[in-house]
Design goal:
Elements lengths: L1 E5 L3 E7 L2 E8 L1 H9 L5 E8 L4 H9 L7 E4 L4 E7 L6 E7 L18 E5 L4 H11 L5 E4 L2 H6 L1 H8 L4 E5 H8 L4 H9 L5 E5 L5 E5 L3 E4 L13 H15 L5 H18 L6 H4 L3 H15 L2
Parallel strand pairs: 1-4, 1-8, 2-6, 4-5, 8-9, 9-10, 10-11
Antiparallel strand pairs: 2-3, 6-7, 11-12, 12-13
Helix pairs in contact: 1-8, 3-5, 6-7, 8-9, 9-11
This protein binds adenosine monophosphate (AMP).
């Protein structure tokens, strides 16, 4: 099945203990689409300004990502500035400039097939609700979010959760959203809002999966070098949804494997700044890391 990805396409300025980069390719939809494109055909739904570098558009093309729903609007591309300290699980946002995202509501033309899975990557929940309502996807609907939207738009987020099959969020966000300290209690609270499956990501400590039937835990892949954790969560969501879109059935085995692919793909993402770690990855790199991960976790 095709995967439609809605989210931000951005120019990020990032500072980590291992370097600084200005105005590099970023955005939740960017990481999620590039990651998913290793598994399934992807349709990217987002907006950029007239200042968005053409080389990034060519990169999407080279990866076979359909950009017909990527609007290019007069104005400035979304910009995000953030800083990480040695504990790279927490990004400190220094500035967010919406640019052409201000007032953006995609058209969702009738020609856009609803026979797709949908990944609502991190963006304003009003926009996520709008696209979900217009597209009415036949397949699986997944959603990601962040602390900013839990703070500013909790009501809209809760409305969305009623219609979402899979919510992915990190441990701090799960605690913030639910008001629960324990992650099991947080996942139960989130499920009570209508979500069927919940993935709670814990950075270098791996990820937890909860549904009525299944509980599953994956560690993170052990890396020697981590340069920039930006986009790890979006990459995880893209890989998991990309992999599930390739599967005939959403069963326990495929969900478990989806989580492992999420883990593997985010390990490539954090090894370099921007989406460079993902872009240089090959299908063989993914197979090799997947087998190594199996060896590391078998007992
Ligand atoms: P992550 O590291 O997975 O949380 O995602 C980082 C990406 O999210 C960056 O590339 C940013 O451009 C993008 N981002 C940051 N803030 C927002 C926001 N408020 N809405 C949508 N995307 C955002």
């Amino acid at each position: 099945m095709r995967l439609t990805v809605l989210g931000s396409t951005a120019l990020d300025s990032i500072e980590t203990p291992f370097g600084n980069r200005k105005e590099i390719l970023g955005g939740s939809a960017t990481y999620a689409s590039v990651s998913a494109s290793f598994f399934t055909p992807v349709n990217l739904m987002s907006v950029v300004g007239s200042d968005f570098p053409a080389r990034y558009l060519s990169m999407f093309d080279k990866r076979g990502i359909d950009t017909s729903s990527l609007e290019i609007k007069k104005g400035k591309t979304f910009r995000w500035k953030a800083k990480y300290n040695y504990d790279m699980s927490v990004a400190t946002t220094l500035s967010t400039k919406l640019g052409v995202f201000d007032g953006y509501m995609p058209e969702v033309p009738d020609s856009l097939s609803s026979s797709c899975n949908l990944l609502l990557a991190n963006i304003d929940p009003d926009l996520q609700n709008h696209v979900l309502k217009k597209l009415k996807p036949a397949g699986l609907v997944a959603c990601d979010t962040m602390n900013l939207w839990i703070d500013l738009k909790k009501r809209s987020l809760l409305k969305l959760l009623k219609k979402v099959d899979l919510l992915l969020l990190n441990d701090a966000e799960a605690r913030q959203l639910s008001g629960e300290e324990g992650l099991f209690a947080a996942a139960k609270w989130i499920s009570s809002k209508g979500v069927k499956m919940v993935v709670i990501k814990k950075g270098e400590h791996g990820a937890l999966f909860f549904s009525k039937k299944l509980g599953f835990i994956v560690p993170a892949y052990l890396l020697e070098v981590i340069k920039d954790p930006t986009g790890a969560g979006d990459t995880f969501a893209g890989a998991m949804m990309g992999y599930l879109s390739r599967c005939r059935k959403i069963n326990d085995r495929n969900l478990r494997r989806g989580l492992v692919y999420g883990t593997i793909m985010s390990s490539f993402a954090v090894e370099r700044f921007s989406a460079d770690g993902l872009i240089k990855t090959t299908p063989k790199d993914i197979r090799d890391r997947y087998s190594h991960f199996e060896k590391l976790t078998r007992f």
